[in-house]
Write a structure and sequence with these properties.
Blueprint: H1 23-32, H2 35-42, H3 54-66, H4 77-96, E1 125-127, E2 133-135
Antiparallel strand pairs: 1-2
Length: 140
């Protein structure tokens, strides 16, 4: 959906530009070097492309970051709380769609601490993001 035609940048002497004016040129560059085509051909996340492709989503994230999260900066505490409430309203419907077998086993990670171990108990071992060997909480 992102489209960029030929662009021409021109600045008058009294005109001030802003940092995001080059975003169109960056999109043209991404298209010119084949990045957009490569993403769409190699990254397969969507079942249907109506109308968006994987590159549209990836570039949306990248462009938003380049623009200092222009949309994200609009969020205030009240907006975040409202969004959390919306998610909380929708969540029970998602849980109701789970089969009964889904609820037979639960894995709880209570505090997020990942203690390092030297391999005393090998079953359930995992590697943390820091590269430490650690047991995972496994409840049969």
């Amino acid at each position: 959906m992102f489209r960029a035609g030929k662009m021409h940048y021109e600045m008058a002497e009294r005109t001030r530009g802003f940092a995001y004016g080059g975003l169109g040129a960056m999109h043209l560059l991404a298209r010119h070097i084949g990045l957009i085509r490569a993403i769409d051909q190699q990254l397969h996340l969507l079942k249907r492309h109506l109308p968006y492709y994987e590159s549209d989503h990836v570039l949306n994230l990248a462009y938003n970051i380049l623009c200092h999260g222009d949309f994200c900066r609009r969020f205030r505490e009240a907006h975040v709380l409202t969004l959390m409430e919306i998610i909380n309203q929708v969540r029970p419907g998602v849980w109701k769609q789970q089969p009964e077998t889904f609820f037979r086993q639960a894995i709880l990670e209570a505090d997020g601490t990942i203690p390092e171990t030297t391999g005393e108990c090998k079953e359930g071992m995992d590697i943390s993001y820091k590269g430490l060997c650690s047991p995972t909480a496994y409840i049969p």
